[in-house]
Sequence to fold (201 residues):
Amino acid sequence: MQIRELKVEGAYELTPQSFHDHRGLFLSPYQQELFLDHTGHRLFPVAQCSLSRSHRAVARGIHFTATPPGMAKFVYSAQGRALDIIVDTRVGAPTYGQWDSVLLDQRDFRALYLPVGVGHLFVSLADDTVVCYLLSTEYVPANELAISPTDPRLRLPLPTEFDLVLSERDRTAPTLDEAERAGILPDYAACRQLSLAWEAA
Fold:
């Protein structure tokens, strides 16, 4: 497995080795010990596994979880193609307001590790794109927050060959600056404490 640290502090891209034969292929996108060997810390204990299936041009995000309770994510695409964008929404983080992007597809089978407090957006580039999530805490709708994917400050690399299909919540979400002024963004120090707590458990 190849593991690469992204521009957002604490976020990683993971590209697993795949094994091919006349039947097809086999791979393991989630490998805790290899991640520990590379990064020096463990992936989180998994509390929930979820998936979404999206039509082409659907954009989901930028989503983040109120902290506490906070949520870390391990994300990969089991079918289709998605442009995944990670945005640092943690106030006080060394990379606050910065982003990075990764193509999730069935050629390289990349996966992403997103630490507590980081925002997440993906755009489906093909019909029936399936994105799978391993979550460190159970999904609670009241804890889920969003910022605008079209925030001009962020200047995200959104596709221009089609009009994005957004939920009402994402279409009307505040900008990063508005969310900071409203006091709803995660605090970097609190996010780090939550991550360290499960590593010590």
Observations:
- The mean pLDDT is 95.
- The longest strand covers residues 48-54.
- The CA atoms of residues 62 and 189 lie 21 Å apart.
- The chain has one domain: 2-149+156-200.
